[in-house]
Amino acid sequence: THEEVVTDIVRREVRSYRELPLNLYQIQVKFRDEARPRFGVVRTREFIMKDAYSFDVDMDGLNRSYQAMYDAYLRIFKRCGIAARPVEADTGLIGGDVSHEFMAIAPAGEDQVLVCSTCRYAANREKAEIGRPKESVKQEAETTKLHSIEEAVTPGQHTVEQVAAYLQVQPTDIVKTILFRTEGDTIAALVRGDHEVNPAKLQRAAKAAKLELATPPEIEKASGGPVGFTGPVGLPLRVIGDLAVQAMRNFVTGGNRLDLHLKNVNSGRDFQPESWADIRYAKEGDPCPKCSAPVRFTTGIEVGHVFKLGTKYSEKMKCEFLDEQGKRRPMIMGCYGIGITRIAAAAIENHNDEAGIIWPKGLAPYQVEVVSVKGKDEKILKLAEDAVASLEQAGFEVLWDDRDESPGVKFADADLLGIPVRVTIGKKSAEAGTADVRARTKPDQKTVPILDLAKEVREAWNGLEA
To answer: Smallest Cα–Cα separation from 62: which of 335, 253, 317?
Structure first.
């Protein structure tokens, strides 16, 4: 994307609040340094993308620009025949406060999408929030008797699965302590044994500009023990605990020494985190943050992304305007992208059968395919040529398959290509002055007089879904 370039253009050209709001866009071939391209045309090295950038005088203006683009994207994807679902997303490297991805739900999708089974909440895996533990879980934890802490020798047992089997406990009875390096500091993240730390969430909770996993030597220096034996008890670091850990009692942790774990550890008594926060990836069945119903995961293809950038770029690059009082203020920015190449891939994933592609009307490379059987027969060729001419005159985009191949090969290729309407002209139709019309989504074809061909094709076309 080109946030810096576009911001530089605007700061040179725009001076007054009277010139705002402003929205600039481009459609461009782009390149990603992909080590191994995959997923067909979903993730290629070279691709086409539409970028847009909005500039407003205040947050209300940004909200209007953002919503207008959000709504426009939904209309675009609908016209392309794609069921694109907006999901909350992490802003990542581009930055900003609010972000939504538009996901085309598809089994072949590369992105995991969390959706609520009851309400409309949806988010990608990096952003997905988790509902608070139920009150009954909290009450049970508060009434649980706290046992005395015990040392347990665990020779060579350093993974959650190994420790659980060795101590005859469940992974849900273990708390993992993961160390991360920030700017000149090391922090410890606590999550349940069967959960994973979400670095993006942890970074926000820790208010850190940058976050990286600590290396084995750094872990041993900070905790006193090797990887796999770190625990929060006596750990001289900032500790941030996940909300699921807050409700746990008498759990197992590392002992900060080789081959040592601690049993019956309890927060508040044996250690005190700096804070409790949602710092893990969501799992199937977790409570929805909006309505507490169970969530589930599906897969999707990202076809669009919108961001509220705020002043991240305008402040640093001095992209300013003069307000009504003559005071200089940074412009409020938004960023909006559509993966044009991906739209084609998503449409194919959303519209296909065992025979091949079923192109949506809005994306079909041709509207009609004329298949002439027995390609060397002059009479058939002449009738097919006339049919193509009449359809083009009626305003249709037509692909003519005049190859000298067998009917079976040509029909199979027509289904594979997925052009919405197929017109077949063969020996019988040439003798009778007719043609066979079939919609790609229908099993049966209709024989019509060649003089009525354009009219019948129009009816078949209008009868198709968008």
So the answer is: 335
State pTM to two decimals.
0.79
Cα–Cα distance list, 168 to 158, 164, 216, 238, 266 (Å)? 14, 6, 27, 30, 19
Q: Is 381 helix (H, G, I), strand (E, B) or coil?
A: helix
| Residue in this structure with the two tokens 């209008």, named with its chain if needed | 462
Helix (H, G, I), strand (E, B) or coil at 380: helix
What average pLDDT does range 281-294 have in this prediction?
90
Is the preceding peptide bond at 107 cis, omega within 30 degrees of 0? no
Q: Whose CA is closest to 190, among 147, 238, 145?
A: 238
Angle of helix 378-393 versus helix 453-462 axis, rounded to 10: 60
Q: How far apart are CA 42 and CA 100, in angstroms?
A: 19
CA dihedral sign, ordered 104, 108, 110, 111: positive
CB 197 within 8 A of CB 229: no
Q: Which residue has the tokens 């097919």?
A: 384
- Rounded to whole angstroms, the Cα distance separating 62 from 307 reads 10
Per-residue confidence at 95, pLDDT binned at 50, 70, 90? low
The structure tokens 């692909």 sit at: 399
Per the structure block, which two tokens stand in for 175?
Answer: 């708390």
Q: Are strands 238-242 and 275-277 parallel, antiparallel or unpaired?
A: parallel
Whether 251 and 174 have beta carbons less than 8 Å apart is answered as yes
At 208-262, the pLDDT tens digits run 888 999 999 999 999 999 999 999 999 999 999 999 999 899 999 999 999 999 9
**Residue among 8, 9, 82 at smallest CA distance from 304:** 82
Q: What pLDDT, in 10s, does the model give residues 189-208?
A: 999 999 999 998 999 899 88
Residue type, position 21, single letter: P
Distance between CA atoms of residues 110 and 26, nearest Å: 26
Does the pLDDT at position 91 exceed 80?
A: no
Q: How far apart are the C-alpha atoms of 208 and 219, rounded to whole Å?
A: 19
Distance separating alpha carbons of residues 436 and 457, to the nearest angstrom: 10
Cα-based angle 380, 383, 385 (whole degrees, multiple of 5): 105
